[in-house]
Design a protein that fits this description.
Layout: H1 2-28, H2 38-52, H3 59-65
Length: 68
């Protein structure tokens, strides 16, 4: 019985260690959706320039222009 309970305790400790390691690995993973492609980056730069120059239209201005 003692050997069996030591083995179970060892297994529990190993599982806890593995869980912590997995959590550490997960925290270091990069979300692929958070990475900009070159096309996304160019679009973002274009948007920022248009916004800075006041070239963007609000939704209400677009609706008004389309008579919606």
């Amino acid at each position: 019985m003692t050997t069996e309970s030591v083995s179970i305790e060892n297994l529990k400790m190993e599982i806890d260690i593995l869980k912590k390691e997995i959590m550490d690995i997960k925290s270091k993973l990069i979300d692929p959706d958070s990475i900009l492609t070159e096309e996304d980056y160019i679009s973002l730069q274009k948007y920022r320039k248009e916004k800075e120059n006041g070239l963007l239209l609000s939704e209400s201005e677009v609706r008004k222009g389309l008579d919606l």
